[in-house]
Amino acid sequence: MRVRLANVRKSFGRHEVVRNLSLDIADGELLVLLGASGCGKTTALRMVAGLETVTAGTIEIGDRDVTHVLPKYRNVAMVFQSYALYPHMTVARNIGYPLKLRGTPAAELDAAVRSAAAKVHLEELLDRYPRQLSGGQRQRVALARAMVRTPSVFLMDEPLSNLDAKLRSAMRAELKRLQSDLGVTTIYVTHDQIEAMTLAHRVAVMDGGVLQQVAPPKEIYDEPANLLVARFIGAPAMNIVAGAMEHGVFRLRDGAVPLGGAAPRASLYLGFRPEDAILAPADAAMLRARIYSTEMTGNETIVTCHLDGEPVVVRADKDFEGAPDSAVGIDLDPAKAVLFDRDTGNRIRR
Amino acid sequence: MPPSGARGGRDRLAEWLDRNAGKVFILPAVLTLLAFALFPLLVSAWLSLTRLRLAAGGFSLEYVGWLNFKKLFFGSQQYHLLGTFDRLGATDWSIVGAVLALFLYLFVRYLLRPGVSVVGVIGRSIAFTVASALTVLLVATLGGGFPGSLVVTLFYVFAGVSIQFGLGLGLALLCSQNITGRNLFRIVFFLPLMVTPVGIAYMFRMLADMHKGPFAHLWAALGLGEFAWASDPWTARLVVLIGDTWQWTPFMFIVLLAAIESQPRDQMEAARIDGAGGWQIFRDITWPSIAPVAATVVLIRLIEAFKIIDLPNVLTNGGPGIATESLTLHAFIAWRTQDLGGSAAVGYTLLFVATVACLSFFNFAGRKARGAAP
Amino acid sequence: MTIPERTLLRRLFTAQDLTSMAPAAKVVVYALLLSWLMVVLFPLYWLFITSFKLPVHVNDGPDFLPFIDFKPSGHAWRYIFVELGNDTLRPYLSSVIVASCSTVLCVLIGAFAAYALVRIQYRVKVGNVAAFLLFLAGTVYVIVNLGAPWPVAAAVASVLFVLFATSVGRSFQRSLGNDDILFWIISNRILPPVVVVLPVYLMFQRLGLLDTHVALIATYTAINLPIVVWLMRDFFAGIPVDLEESAQIDGASRFRIFFTIVLPLGRPGLAATSLLILILAWNEYLLALFISTADAQTMPMLVAAQNATRGPQWWYMSVLIVIMIAPIVLTAAMLQRHIARGLMVGAIKG
């Protein structure tokens, strides 16, 4: 079902946590709210759930205005970071609780619990208590409890962050498959950009309570709307260097990049991804830098250089070798570089 | 999907209840307290200013102003509430002077501190005035005079609570050692709390019986066989105090033991490795970590101790004379003799003293203890 | 090889390792604990054996050991249960009814309030509180001095106050929060019962409820309420709020959440608090002294009244005290398991 947030605000006393948030989420879409902790993404999710009141603006689910509707009448399902399993109930009773509250007949409830449990491979554990389960199993119970009824929207608040790295990537794949099978609109909150990139149909990046950009993962990665998004997305993050445009060439102290086209402008930032640059001999390259350190990760080597005194990261071949403090040149793909206005931080279209 | 359009009246009632859950949850408690605490408190204030007589099918009231209080503090009932005063000698005066000087010093020191507040000044003024008045009262009645129910209550409260705290803390420290049978001690030590105070009173009358009690041979051997503790004011009070201590030490013990056992183990082990002895560990680690709990449990006991009645009423019937009468018992006796205004006035005196004592303790000791906690 | 005397002495006073005590210290600790054990147990033992003594055994000076010093006899028990029969059973039943009903009621009402004070934010206008007190005082004055019929006066005052609070009351600025409400509730415990018992006596006299179980139950509920609120608040505050929010989204109302999530999880606290309140209500003496005279007389009254009859008859009295202690000890033993089991659930909650 479609979810719409229109000019939603939330303040706690004088402190404004969410500022003028407008989002349109299509039926069946998986939207990821991404941002560092304290950026307002969880508050936004909790407002959709009805756990926080809305200071201003409206929230619609389907065609219904739910801004002032109690959570129980919104027909949403939520998975909490802590899973919020009821410790005094068995797995079966945990999963069946939402149906029991709706007065579902016992036989129907039992069937629904079994089928939900089957979807997440929990059939064997229905009689256990949450304390007897591993972290991954608890996570599955939480998912099953959300799926046991057909909600209008799934709300997920960092559901994978309490799992270890290996389990997390396995659950990620499973979650993505479940969501596309069920086709239920999902809002997913996370601070982990890998999760956001891999799961989302669209990613909404938030910072300081303000929505910075909403776009499909690829667009977020390739065409960040502003410096905040550019710096947040990507590991290692996008390199940002200061300079100016003159006659189609971006100039900085230790080099120049021919970008072509754009009008002359004094204060700009040039951004490029570590994989869009290659290391070259110092004298013939666009940019001249010094190697600061090299880290071999297995399939590649991450080289940190100093350019104009600023650190710049370049992905190199895994066999790359370079002594610290030795001079090195950097060539980059002008088509993939992006420009930002130094005053507003916004990307400049070329 | 909820059938959003077709919700019935029951659902609407449920939603109304849900939205107003805050009021519904707290209202029973608030109404109960209004009916059985606040309302009676106001009526009682009014009663203490009247002379009230029960008559057939009702009662009659007559406003008498402060007469009931005047009678208690300065008139014919002074001996009963405050006691019989002795002329103050040189030593008495020096004690009073020293205490007054101490309070004055504390008060001035507070005034010179940054962050003086109006509430603080008023609170301290009341606390110090009451404490000074009680000091004069104690000195005047305990020396050569005869203490009244107010002084006796203060004796029960302060002697009782300090002894119980000391014993409870000591036992808790012993019991927290690494010994076998800890659970047995814990369960058995809890038992006295479950015994009805009236029962305790009779039990101690039995035990303290000079001829038929279990220690009869001992008394006889000591030449005390004919001694009647119930007719000597101080031994009578002491027996009441022993009964109270027997019952309430377990309370202190249980709570303090829980606090000691939940203190951080690693700190204690670190201190031990650093070479700290038992006393140093207690002073530097155990005490600071249990101080807030200790302050709370003493506060609770203070509050409850002021209400003592069962033990003196049953154990000694308030006697000899009025020697073991507590304020509550005094109020009850006044009520039984149809002096309802006087009873309410005694009750209000008790309320005033208890409130000042508990709030003072909470503000002076309680805050400090909480501040000392890590 | 002989151990020098000094070393032996030293070994007596030094610990073998960090976790154990020196042998001498151990002896002292045990001696002290065992002596207090005697202090606690001996009076109870004496009570118990006295209940099996014949008057002659009591009056002839102390006899300590049953079967050796004296031959146990059930005469006192027979007298209390058979000859007195109903005179014992009626107060006993009275006590059971009053203590159990008031405990259940008190814990329920108190738990409601404690939970609300933890989870719901209250704002009470100072002006309205002051106005309420004025209205209350005015009502009392009108009833007592002008002889107005109390139901009419109370109804009129309530209506006037509600009108006032909803009109003028809205303009007050300063308000009290949860901590103030909590402080007020707890501070009611400082009130000595003897201060409030006179008006309560008159109130029940007016209502024709003097010397009834209802009067005792209501009064006991009120005086023990502050303790329940104080204790239960901490237990409820320890329950993760996620669980309740999850239930809320799953479709549970506040009341459903309270009864199916909060109360079961607060069970250890509930058991401990109930036990304490039961002990207080079971042993209460002063209020019973005022409010119950004959029909609703409770056990403490019966025990206390033993004095007045034919001098102290220790054997009968001992029986009465023993049968008063027994149910409390049994309840404590029963709840002990509950408390322990509940704590285990709480300690490893998922």
Keywords:
heterotrimer; A: 350 residues; alpha+beta; Rossmann fold; OB fold (Dihydrolipoamide Acetyltransferase, E2P); six-stranded mixed beta sheet; 8 helices; B: 374 residues; mainly alpha; MetI-like fold; 2 domains; two-stranded antiparallel sheet; two-stranded antiparallel ribbon; 4 strands
Structural commentary:
- The complex is a heterotrimer of chains A (350), B (374) and C (350).
- Chain A has 350 residues and is an alpha+beta fold.
- Chain A folds into two domains: 3-225, P-loop containing nucleotide triphosphate hydrolases (Rossmann fold), CATH 3.40.50; 239-348, OB fold (Dihydrolipoamide Acetyltransferase, E2P).
- Chain A has helices at residues 41-49, 91-101, 106-119, 135-147, 165-182, 193-199, 217-222, 227-232; strands at 3-12, 15-25, 30-34, 56-61, 64-65, 76-79, 153-157, 185-190, 202-207, 210-215, 239-246, 249-252, 255-258, 265-272, 277-280, 287-296, 301-307, 310-316, 327-332, 338-341, 347-348.
- The longest helix of chain A is centred in the middle third of the chain and has 18 residues, at 165-182.
- Chain A is elongated, with a radius of gyration of 24 Å.
- Chain B is 71% helix and 4% strand.
- The two termini of chain B are 52 Å apart.
- Chain B folds into two domains: 4-63, no CATH class; 80-85 and 145-372, MetI-like (MetI-like fold, Orthogonal Bundle), CATH 1.10.3720.10.
- Chain B is globular and about 70 Å long.
- Chain B has helices at 9-19, 21-47, 67-73, 78-81, 90-111, 118-142, 149-175, 182-190, 197-207, 216-222, 233-261, 265-273, 278-305, 310-316, 327-336, 340-372; strands spanning 50-55, 58-63, 83-84, 146-147.
- In chain B, the strands form two sheets. A two-stranded antiparallel sheet of chain B has the order 1-2.
- Chain B has 16 helices and four strands.
- Chain B is mostly helical.
- Helices cover 74% and strands 1% of the residues of chain C.
- Chain C has 16 helices and two strands.
- In chain C, strands 1-2 form a two-stranded antiparallel sheet.
- Chain C has helices at residues 5-13, 23-50, 55-59, 75-83, 86-119, 126-146, 150-166, 178-187, 193-207, 213-237, 241-250, 254-265, 267-283, 286-291, 299-305, 314-347, and strands at residues 124-125, 175-176.
- At the B-C interface, α1, α2, α7, α8 and α9 of B face α2, α5, α6, α9 and α10 of C.
